[in-house]
Automatic annotation (TrEMBL):
Keywords: Cytoplasm, Disulfide bond, Electron transport, Redox-active center, Transport. CDD domains: GRX_GRXb_1_3_like. This is Glutaredoxin. Belongs to the glutaredoxin family. It comes from Aquicella lusitana. Signal peptide: none annotated. GO terms for molecular function: glutathione disulfide oxidoreductase activity; protein-disulfide reductase activity. It comes from the Bacteria. GO terms for biological process: cell redox homeostasis. PANTHER family: GLUTAREDOXIN-2, MITOCHONDRIAL, PTHR46679. Residues 4-62 form the Glutaredoxin domain. PROSITE patterns: GLUTAREDOXIN_1, GLUTAREDOXIN_2. Has a glutathione-disulfide oxidoreductase activity in the presence of NADPH and glutathione reductase. Reduces low molecular weight disulfides and proteins.
């Protein structure tokens, strides 16, 4: 099973949409709240070179944010990433 990690913060509509998309597809993920731990914000920035949330990783590969995740899902490429 693929390892999926989603960096989020409270009151972020795109974070909610990303989590809903993953949940609707029965994809298990780990949520890391960057607003609760400053070191996790730094970790996200180091791993993705992006400051915005959500930041989504599949098997330690940066996917991007919600729009990127939705595009992968729409194109059918998300399933391929989850199988690796």
């Amino acid at each position: 099973m693929a390892k999926v990690v989603v960096y989020t913060k409270e009151n972020c509509p795109y974070c909610v949409m990303a989590k809903n998309l993953l949940s609707a597809r029965n994809i298990t993920f780990e949520e890391i709240r960057i607003d609760l731990d400053e070191s996790k914000r730094d970790e996200m920035l180091r791993l993705s070179n992006r400051r915005t949330v959500p930041q989504i990783f599949i098997n330690d590969q940066p996917i991007g944010g919600y729009d990127d995740l939705a595009a992968l899902a729409k194109s059918g490429n998300l399933e391929g990433l989850l199988k690796t």
